[in-house]
Design brief:
The complex is a heterodimer of chains A (114) and B (111).
Chain A: E1 5-7, E2 10-13, E3 19-24, E4 31-37, E5 44-50, E6 53-57, E7 65-68, E8 75-79, E9 88-95, E10 104-105, E11 109-113
Parallel strand pairs in A: 2-11
Antiparallel strand pairs in A: 1-3, 3-8, 4-5, 4-9, 5-6, 7-8, 9-10, 9-11
Chain B: E1 4-7, E2 10-14, E3 19-25, E4 31-37, E5 44-49, E6 55-58, E7 61-65, E8 71-76, E9 85-92, E10 100-101, E11 105-110
Parallel strand pairs in B: 2-11
Antiparallel strand pairs in B: 1-3, 3-8, 4-5, 4-9, 6-7, 7-8, 9-10, 9-11
Classes of the chains: A mainly beta (114), B mainly beta (111).
Chain lengths: 114, 111
């Protein structure tokens, strides 16, 4: 079990630029989640995949956000035309199939918008 | 939508004192999970409660799930500096694979 891997760990960019983050889940986990976390808050759900299918996306999520999991393995999260309010920690988590399974989180990508 | 509220937001204790955090859901849950996040780290799964009235223990940590499956608590006996971190509850409703996290309780232990 090599754990959930996220890249990069930190990203600093200017407002208006596009950014892309990558998540490599634990290999046998077919369910993958993206969350956003800001200081003093719990992880906020963004989107969720079962294998390559994106099953749910938060209604609060801007159209500037898009996620893919093309082969049901790694996933990418892209933010277009970044805004100051996008500054946060972006967490990826994976879990095996079946009910009552815990999520395993990666170390996250910290995004700072200048 | 489902809401999960957690109190207190912060708790300062002297090492050796006990600590409790409470979690309340606006809807009945199918199960509840607890996670710990160390400063600068990521959430790490601690435990899951499924049954009404369930109580589980992990060394000095005691987890409870309410009879109505709408509230839960985590109690730490005789805190240690290694207990420092933020404790999150995450509730799931029937059939959903998407947990709703509380905002967490940050535990600060003074030696």
């Amino acid at each position: 079990d090599t754990g959930v891997s996220q890249d990069p760990r930190h990203k600093i960019t200017k407002r208006g630029q596009n950014v892309t983050f990558r998540c490599d889940p634990i290999s046998e986990h077919n369910r993958l989640y993206w969350y956003r976390q800001t200081l003093g808050q719990g992880p906020e759900f963004l989107t969720y995949f079962q294998n390559e299918a994106q099953l749910e996306k938060s209604r609060l999520l801007s159209d500037r956000f898009s996620a893919e999991r093309p082969k049901g393995s790694f996933s990418t999260l892209e933010i277009q035309r970044t805004e100051q309010g996008d500054s946060a920690m972006y967490l990826c988590a994976s879990r095996p199939d079946g009910i009552n399974q815990p999520q395993h989180f990666g170390d996250g990508t910290r995004l700072s918008i200048l | 939508g489902q809401q999960v509220m957690q109190i207190p937001q912060y708790q300062h204790v002297q090492e050796g004192e006990d600590f409790t955090t409470y979690c309340n859901s606006s809807t009945t849950l199918s199960n509840i999970q607890w996670y710990k996040q160390r400063p600068g780290g990521h959430p790490v799964f601690l435990i899951q409660l499924v049954k009404s009235g369930e109580v589980k223990k992990q060394k000095r940590l005691t987890f409870q799930f309410g009879e109505a499956k709408k509230n839960s608590s985590l109690h730490i006996t005789a805190t240690q500096t290694t207990d420092v971190g933020t404790y999150f509850c995450a509730g799931l409703t029937g059939g959903s694979y998407i947990p709703t996290f509380g905002r967490g309780t940050s535990l600060i232990v003074h030696p």
